[in-house]
Amino acid sequence: MDIAKGDKLLMKKKHPCGSNEMLVLRSGMDFKLRCCGCGREFMIPRSKAEKNVKNVVKQDLDI
Q1: What is the pLDDT of residues 22-57, one digit of tens each?
Q2: Rounded distance between C-alpha atoms, residue 22 and residue 4, angstroms
Q3: Are strands 41-45 and 53-57 parallel, antiparallel or unpaired?
Q4: DSSP readout, the chain?
């Protein structure tokens, strides 16, 4: 799965705040995500994140 910094992920499960949208702050073996609802940042293993992603919204690149 091709996920890069700045992409928004729509997750299958909701965050406890009720939002299912996450912003990717860092990608690698782990992802650092920020909840778009409450702003909480957390790290999650790549395997667990990729399993729970419903849709990836790519960032717009104006080059």
Answers
A1: 999 999 999 999 999 999 999 999 999 999 999 999
A2: 12
A3: unpaired
A4: ----TT-EEEESS--TTS--EEEEEE-SSEEEEEETTT--EEEEEHHHHHHHEEEEEPPP---
Rounded to two decimals, what is the model's pTM?
Answer: 0.85
CATH fold for the domain made of 8-57: SH3 type barrels. (2.30.30)
Backbone dihedral angles phi then psi of residue 46, each to the nearest 5 degrees: -55, -45
Q: pLDDT-derived band of residue 60, with 50, 70 and 90 as boundaries? A: low
Domain boundaries, given as residue ranges, for the chain: 8-57
